Amino acid sequence: MGQLTQFAPFLLMFVVIYFFMIRPQQKRAKNEKEFESSLKVGDKIITKSGFHGKVVELGETSVIIETMSGKLKIERSAISLEMSSALNKKA
Length: 91
What we know:
The chain is of the alpha+beta class. It has helices at 2-37, 81-90, and strands at 44-46, 52-58, 62-67, 70-75. The chain has one domain (1-90): SH3 type barrels, CATH 2.30.30.60. It is built from two helices and four strands; from the N terminus they run αββββα. A hairpin with a 3-residue loop joins strand 2 and strand 3 (62-67).
């Protein structure tokens, strides 16, 4: 019983770290993957670097977007979930 009380603070710290750091990160990654797979032609998006555009063509891992200056080919992972959701919510 004495050994259990010695390790209880470490177990408690691990549980707290899991629920406040690891689990939310996993949930955020899952939401981003779902967002990337649900993209369709015509969606308005914002990239993580700040480019605004509309999806013109979808590839397996890349997307071609149309911006005011032309077409750009970007990776799906470069599209920002938060900023694109905020853009589509306003419209």
